[in-house]
Here is the input.
Amino acid sequence: MKNYRASFEEIDWQQTPGGARFKLCEADGRRARLLEFGPDLEHPEWCERGHRGTVLAGELRIEFENGADVIYHPGDLIHIPAGCADCHRPSALSETVRVLFWEETA
Here is the structure.
């Protein structure tokens, strides 16, 4: 298994229309996304994008369109396959949630 390293120190935060902020970093053909949001996040549509990552801080709830809810804590790994069968919506259960996602770009 290959190890990847990403540094966000020199990268400015960007803002989403829904209230989250994020940083993007390219590393070895992969994109790392550092995402941070709080309880005021507005996520109006069900997300069909797949996610692989880890919770760095805070408590995160992911609500699935099928009615299931999953609670994640710092150190928990997240793996949500892409597609409508896993449509989901995130929300913060703590003041701040910080998550690191890896996305394939190559």
